[in-house]
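Design request, tokens follow.
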């Protein structure tokens, strides 16, 4: 059944004490609003509308061109007033309207779907949760088990404040009735606001069934109002990710010291040490081991490869059985073949290393291809940039580049060539031969080291 999705995101977020709108703050690398949109995506909503107010320009800009509509609420006179603003944009052809909160990011897609299904265009469905401390929340008031209304904390009697069942701020309502109800709201309450929650009593008065469903997990309905709450939800989210991975057999040294900011796909027997951050889309093959303190973004690491501690990988591919790090940096376009070794303080950018190639110490490979089994010496670099353009270096198979060489691109080193240590290579080096390009070593006979002049007086 077709659904409208409305996401309330006009509030100020005063307690964030930030220049940025609250719903643009990030959790696990995605904005809060993006999380909510992702959770709603499974509903295939006929229309998705975000209500903006504070920081509306920034929010609308951040989500422009993503199939989301915006309605502005200026000023913000309460949640009921917010929904009043979307009434003209709500399509009656979609019998169910789901209302979500832009600052409640961990709602699960299944929960949103279940709520829409419970509404089915004819019931008012409220998402509720039982809280030990319900301070500040709207209480679900029942008579003989049936919901009769929601009373806001500030308007509640002492007896009502004892109620532990609260409204989460998330509901699904029959579209046509919702429009009628919100237009009839008044603001004669403690906060002089138009409360969306007052529509519950209206539904009851009209004999529209009011049903509740409970969130499976408290984290689903927690809102973000402060940096502390944001960090708390981040850890809860990370715990969810960690548990999903561990359920699939991934061995995390410590699920509390693990951060996934995107999608992480793992084969069998993957081991991840502490304090690693995974961003974008990362795929780890069977038996991959990731050492402590690695940051890995948009990468594919094949079976059996080992990434040693403190390694940074971005936009790279690592072949089966390769060894990388510690303290290595693979930049976009780095493609390592099987059993390639990249050691400490080696940077690789837009370069391909064929099977068995090695660069073990303090080196730079940029815009380069390295053939099979070649060894690239300590401290050697490719000078790939002439100040205006980038040029390629081609190193054949079974090449030995000595230590501390500069290969000035464009340049080609033939198969089996050896480059003497300390060479600056500006011309192609032929296959199978030794090429050396450095000043000849001389020894000056009878040379005397200068001595200090004797002090005068
Ligand atoms: C609301 C509910 C309360 C519920 C609680 C759950 C009402 C009247 N009360 O209270 O029953 O227990 O959420 O967290 O609905 N917003 C706007 N425009 C406004 C006011 C708010 O867009 O004029 C947005 C906010 O940005 C936020 C959401 O609506 O995303 C909820 O607003 P908030 O002020 O946090 O509602 P509460 O008073 O906490
Ligand atoms: Mg409020």
């Amino acid at each position: 059944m077709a659904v409208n999705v409305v996401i309330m995101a006009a509030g100020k977020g005063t307690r964030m004490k930030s220049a940025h709108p609250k719903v643009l703050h990030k959790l696990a690398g995605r904005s809060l609003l993006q999380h909510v949109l992702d959770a709603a995506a499974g509903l295939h909503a006929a229309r998705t509308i975000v209500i903006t107010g504070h920081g509306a320009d920034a929010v609308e800009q951040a989500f422009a061109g993503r199939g989301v509509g915006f309605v502005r609420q200026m000023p913000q006179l309460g949640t009921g007033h917010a929904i009043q603003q979307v009434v003209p944009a709500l399509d009656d052809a979609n019998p169910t309207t789901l209302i979500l909160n832009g600052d409640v990011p961990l709602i699960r897609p299944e929960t949103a779907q279940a709520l829409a299904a419970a509404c089915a265009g004819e019931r008012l469905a409220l998402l509720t949760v039982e809280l030990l401390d319900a301070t500040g929340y709207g209480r679900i008031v029942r008579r003989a088990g049936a919901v009769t209304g929601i009373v806001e904390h500030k308007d509640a009697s002492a007896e009502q404040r004892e109620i532990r069942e609260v409204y989460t701020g998330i509901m699904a309502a029959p579209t046509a009735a919702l429009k009628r109800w919100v237009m009839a709201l008044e603001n004669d309450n403690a906060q002089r606001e138009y409360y969306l929650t007052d529509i519950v009593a209206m539904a009851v008065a009209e004999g529209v069934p009011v049903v509740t469903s409970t969130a499976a997990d408290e984290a689903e309905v927690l809102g973000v109002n402060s940096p502390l709450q944001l960090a708390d939800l981040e850890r809860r989210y990370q715990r969810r990710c960690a548990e999903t991975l561990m359920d699939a057999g991934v061995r995390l040294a410590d699920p509390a010291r693990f951060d996934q900011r995107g999608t992480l796909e793992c084969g069998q027997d993957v081991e991840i040490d502490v304090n690693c951050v995974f961003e974008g889309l990362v795929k780890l093959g069977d038996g991959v081991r990731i050492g402590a303190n690695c940051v890995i973004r948009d990468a594919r690491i094949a079976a059996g490869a080992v990434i040693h501690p403190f390694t940074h990988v971005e936009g790279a591919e690592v072949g089966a059985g390769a060894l990388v790090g510690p303290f290595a940096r693979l930049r976009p376009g780095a493609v390592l073949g099987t059993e390639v070794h990249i050691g400490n303080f080696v940077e690789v950018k837009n370069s391909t290393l064929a099977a068995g190639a090695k660069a073990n110490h303090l080196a730079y490979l940029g815009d380069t291809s390295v053939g099979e089994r070649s060894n690239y010496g300590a401290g050697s670099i490719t000078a790939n940039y002439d100040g205006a353009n980038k040029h390629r270096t081609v190193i054949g198979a079974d090449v030995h580049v000595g230590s501390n060489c500069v290969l000035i691109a464009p340049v080609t080193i033939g198969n089996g060539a050896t480059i003497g240590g300390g060479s600056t290579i500006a011309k192609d080096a032929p296959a199978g031969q030794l090429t050396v390009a450095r000043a000849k070593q001389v020894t000056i006979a009878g040379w005397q080291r200068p001595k200090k002049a004797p002090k005068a007086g």
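Comment from the thread starter after seeing the answer: thanks! The chain has seven helices and 38 strands.
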